[in-house]
Amino acid sequence: MPVPEAPVVPVPERSGGGLFGGKKRLEAENAQLREWVERLGGLDAMQITAATELLRAEQARLQVAIQDADRRLREIEAQIVQTEDVALLQEVGVYEYQHPLGDAVAYKAKLAEVKDKIKSMARAGQAVLGATNWTVNGSAAEGRRMVRDFSKLMLRAYNAEADNCVRTMRPYKLQSAIDRLSKAGEAIVKLGKTMHIHVSDDYHRLRVYELQLTAEYLAKVEEEKEQVRAQRERQREEEAARREFEREKARLRKEESHYRTALAKLLANGDTAGAEELKAKLEEIGAAVAVVEAREANIRAGYVYVISNIGAFGENVVKIGMTRRLEPEDRVRELGDASVPFKFDTHALIFSDDAVSLEGRLHDELRERRVNKVNPRREFFYATPAEVRDLLEKIAGQHLLEYRDVPEALEWRQSVHGAAPAV
């Protein structure tokens, strides 16, 4: 019986779709080999030995082809720069400033200096360098002109990539942008190899520095915007508290005026017993006015609240904040008015003459449990109401005014169970 011919297995091609379709092609070749081996069942020992040698030779050839394909795939992957936002965002960490400056204005001024230096280097011919001994038809002048023209063309392509990186910059895209710009420089080196045209190291470093400053400028701008938003929120809260204090004092003063008028009438009528009762009431009103004025004067006094919103943030997430309002529930209602789909539930309320410090201590104790570890003004924490209650009792003593462990979350529970919408 003749030895069956070994299947012809083509080596993966070096261009086109051959590289990326190699896996399917190898699977097909393996299927051919298995079919060939099955046909060996009717061969004698010498024929099987010859067939085995053929198989070993084919296997060695395939192994070399696979190694060559893997090597070329790695080369191609090394030339790829990741630019997808989703992939870049998955890798982003807390942004760290490499060139920390005071504020966005300082970054903007530094960027202006860098841009001026970029223009100066380009005008002085220090951005792209090339051969100085190139000749065209024996003419050194023509050679210099050709090198100069090609250098300008290469610089224009490099600057277009750099400007695009600056224009589309986001802080989390910084490393990707630097990689893209470096690849552009490498491409210029390859294209200008015959005339030794390349982007100078100093110019490339300057443009990378521009990218870094741009990323930090954008991060600082967003940081300052967040600070402004937080400051405006504090001002709105302070203004609401001030109006509340004024309304309460006006109410108490009006009530005091009524009692004084009634007291004068009782004294005129000789009703001393009734007059004594009104005097006691006036003393209570005076004490209440003093308390409101003291609260108004002490900007650190107020309520620390612990609230949750299971429908918006899930279980075991609480918000710990502070308000100077006379009625702290007013602040809780405001937080649940528009920014979240359901109302907040109050778990704890505690009054303190130094509510600012109490809130700060609670935040410090739960620092590692912050939901937002970048922006400390976001006061949400992964904790149960019971855990916060235990902290409050340890830090603030027995001044807990109100505590509820299980959130009512009526709107959320009704929504989950398919309640009909209110008419």
Task: Describe the structure in your own words.
By secondary structure, this protein is α+β, with helices and mostly antiparallel strands. Among the domains are: 22-78; 104-223; 302-416. The protein is 62% helix and 8% strand. The chain has a 5-stranded antiparallel sheet with strand order 6-4-3-5-7. Residues 6-18 have low confidence and may be disordered. Keywords: Coiled coil.
Unreliable spans are: 6-18
Overall morphology: elongated
Terminal CA distance reads 91 Å
Quaternary arrangement of the chains shown? single chain
- Rg, Cα atoms, Å: 39 Å
Characterize the biggest β-sheet.
5 strands, antiparallel
Strand coverage percent = 5-15%
Count up the helices: 13
- N-to-C order of helices and strands: HHHHEHHEHHEHEHEHEHEH
Average per-residue pLDDT, rounded, comes to: 82
Please tally the β strands and state the result.
7
Largest beta sheet: what is the strand line-up?
A: 6-4-3-5-7
The percentage helix is 55-70%
Task: Please state the structural category.
Answer: alpha+beta
Blueprint of the fold:
Elements lengths: L21 H17 L6 H34 L6 H7 L12 H20 L4 E2 L10 H28 L6 H18 L6 E2 L1 H69 L2 H26 L4 E7 L1 H4 L3 E7 L4 H8 L9 E8 L2 H11 L14 E3 L2 H12 L3 E4 L6 H7 L7
Antiparallel strand pairs: 1-2, 3-4, 3-5, 4-6, 5-7
